[in-house]
Amino acid sequence: MKVLGIETSCDETAAAIVELGDGGSLRLLSSIVASSMDLHAVYGGVVPEIAARSHIEHMMPVIEKALYEAFDGSDDPWENIDAIAVTQGPGLGGSLLVGVVAARTLAIRKNKPLYAVNHVMAHPFASFITSGIKGLSYPGKPPQFPLLSLIVSGGHTQLVLFRSPFDYSVLGRTRDDAIGEAFDKVAKILGLPYPGGPSVGEKAKEGDPSAYKFPKAKLEGNIFDFSFSGLKTAVLRTAQKEIGEDHHFPSTMLSKRLSEAQKANISASFQSGAIQTLVNKTVKAYEEFNPISVVVAGGVAASPELRRQLGETLPSPPIYPDIKLCTDNGAMIAALGCFMHGSEQEPADPYTLDIAPSLSM
Ligand code: KG4
Ligand code: ZN
Known about the structure:
alpha/beta, Nucleotidyltransferase, domain 5, 2 domains, six-stranded mixed sheet, four-stranded mixed sheet, 19% strand, binds 5'-O-[(R)-(carboxyoxy)(hydroxy)phosphoryl]adenosine, binds zinc ion
């Protein structure tokens, strides 16, 4: 069974084809990602209008390339496709619309079942792909249930316990900023390029993680919930204080006055504290729920510091998708689509499927 996955929730226009083999293993036949990240970098964050326009330009060429690479030499590549899976949400409305309209049209024209996929839920399913196109590294074997997943991206931060693909509990989630968003905002304060995860991580290498003691959020209620907005504000206040200004000083002018050493120390202290919070809660959940596998997914799963800290503290090594399958891609959508098509999940109606920008798990 082969599923075409389509993803357009943010600034990546992506399509991929994943095959479900006889033994239940997933194989990646192609994965194409066209990013409009460079167009957003000058603004320090994604501009929804620019992202939507870029999706319109890239959507069909990306799908055609994914089909061509998976079925090179086939007269009609569509004959090989059993189903189409598309990101329904969460994400930017204008961006989601492009992918959903493309998927609906193709499902009708090519007469294929259509599956509406939750983008956040799909992230960990990239780890079920254990073989495929060259140049990526795959886990030796797929994760096993019960599975604990730390999903960390630009829009989401949550811990989810999956008992099976469609039977899960969200243990905790962020009450304000997502971890990737916190990285992106701190990068902006420090004048480091977008996206902030990699640029703060790179700058942190030159800094001292114990230079500043940033507060950790103390939350009432659910111990698995997260909060990162206080940490981001603490970074802002520290930067203002370091240059001898009060809290009225505009954040946009800070980076010119901070020295490279100050930027490096702030990056290192912020990164280490933010990641400690993720790691502590993941370890607590591991101890409480005793999963067989732990999967770390989403753009921030690419962070070397997160991998280092988790490797040192988790009793069993977590499974990560290849870096290219950590950030947004079509393969994770196709992977979850394979599970949906192979189970009792209802296909969507291609004539009525709507986007769901605030969809949650
Ligand atoms: O999953 P993703 O591509 O998009 C969303 O669904 O949000 O995640 C994007 C986020 C950005 O905030 C970016 O700063 C972060 O992932 N990110 C990283 C790294 N690469 C991307 N964060 C930390 N370290 C990285 N190497
Ligand atoms: Zn994502």
